[in-house]
Amino acid sequence: MISTYSVLTEILVDEFQLCAEDLSADARCGEVGLDSLTAAELAGLLRSRLGLEVQDYELLELPTLGDVAALLEKRLPADQRQG
Question: For the chain, what is the domain count?
Fold first, then answer.
């Protein structure tokens, strides 16, 4: 089982040097620095780590990190989803 939220926050901390304490499911994407450039890079990293097709514009349309994780969860194959 994959926790999409855990993968998302791991990428944000490791690749974008964000502070883990500043991240929560309710954190607004814009407030943690998600802009068009970082959304494109994040989409590529999510493809690499999870094997999911995610477009940068989709990430920019979502208000919170929890919403991003929920989108990723929906796209995972059923046997990899949590709960």
Answer: 1
